[in-house]
Amino acid sequence: MEKKKEIKFLILIWMSIKMVACLQMDLSGKPKQSLCDIGCKCPSEGQSVIFLDCDSKDISNLPSSIQLNGSITSLSFRNNRIEHLGTNTFFKADSVEELDLSFNRILKIDNFTFRPFKSLLILRISNNLLPDLEPGLLDGLSNLRTLELGQNAIQRISPLSFQPTAKLQELRLHHNPIFELPEDLLQYLPHLEKLDLQDTGLVRLPDNLLTFTPGLHWLSLSNNAFENVPEKALSKAHRLECLDLSGNDFIVIQKGAFRGLSSISVLYLNNLERLSIIEKDAFAGLVKLKHFSCSYNPKLSYLDPEAFGSLNSTVSSYKTVPREQLSLRQNNLRTLQSPFERESLSSLSYVDLSENPWKCDCHILWMKKLKAETEEAIVCD
């Protein structure tokens, strides 16, 4: 009887040893790899680190069930050859606040892959090959504040993708072939403050897209294919402070184009290759405007002297004045009556009117009275 008990005890010990060995093997029977085994800069024994650097290590496959100790708050896999992230890639990552997967070849990320990242604030997946955003991809990222998805191959985005990320403040989707946005794309992002849609092939902005983001204060729509300023959609962004519309297909900036955007302080209208006319009251109502740049527009030959507002304006009872910086560099302007009141000129700290084919006459005499620092002297054609 005692001998049988001894045999059973030995069998149990053998099975325990076998189980421990199995836990250290992957499905192929080979010992599991750690991040240290694939070249990451791991800490020495007893050393505590907050940043785990796995950049530029020629990594194509990550080990499964990665566990990160509680001191690591930042993890980076930039510039590798990773193509796929599976649900079992990460097992424990409670303390990580920043994860960088940019500059890889990621084609697919399985749903729920990021669930272990309960504290994640910043996720960078830019410069990859992701084709779409589907529900489940961002599941578990309830604390996420910044999401960078620029320069992928994203064509389709489901609004439900963002349902788990209600605290998101910054979303970058630039340089993706999106072409068309769902009207309810941002419905789960009430705290969004920055939105980058640069170079996404857009020809229109859904009228109600920005109704879901009352705190939005920074928006880039540059290098798209808008033929008109998307006035109706933009009018919903009442707190917008910085707007970039450079590189679009505008021919005319129409009257009241920025109606309702009284919080705008920075406006960029550069590199508009087709722009030729800016109408009266085009910028009326931009009462907080500080920095205005409308440069490098080779066909812009007419800027109405009342483009910044007029006494009988139907758009706004206030005249717009760029308070700090004004740039009209390298357009095709030959003449320009002063669009500002005399007293407003003294507040400008920087003015650039250079590289236009100015015709020197009484209409541009006001330029000589500018006290602000100018980039280059005004030269008449």
Structural features, described:
This is Leucine-rich repeat-containing protein 4B. InterPro entries: Leu-rich_rpt, Leu-rich_rpt_typical-subtyp, LRR_dom_sf, LRR_TM_domain-containing. Keywords: Leucine-rich repeat, Repeat, Signal. The chain is mainly β and 381 residues long. It folds into two domains: 36-178, Alpha-Beta Horseshoe (Leucine-rich repeat, LRR (right-handed beta-alpha superhelix)); 250-380, Leucine-rich repeat, LRR (right-handed beta-alpha superhelix) (Alpha-Beta Horseshoe), CATH 3.80.10. The chain has four helices and 23 strands. It has a 14-stranded parallel β-sheet, with no helix packed on it. It has a three-stranded parallel β-sheet with strand order 16-18-20, with no helix packed on it. Strands 2-5 form a two-stranded parallel sheet. α4 (365-368) links the parallel β22 (350-352) and β23 (373-374). The model is unreliable at 9-31 (pLDDT under 50).
Spatial separation of the terminal alpha carbons:
113 Å
Examine the secondary-structure arrangement and name the CATH architecture of the largest domain.
Alpha-Beta Horseshoe
Q: Quick one: how many beta strands?
A: 23
- State the CATH superfamily name of the largest domain: Ribonuclease Inhibitor
User: What pattern of helices and strands is seen along the backbone?
Assistant: HEEEEEEEEEEEEEEHEEEEEEEHEHE
Quaternary structure type: single chain
Q: Which structural class matches the secondary elements? A: mainly beta
* Proportion of residues in β-strands: 15-25%
Query: Which regions have little confidence, pLDDT < 50, spanning 5+ residues?
Result: 9-31
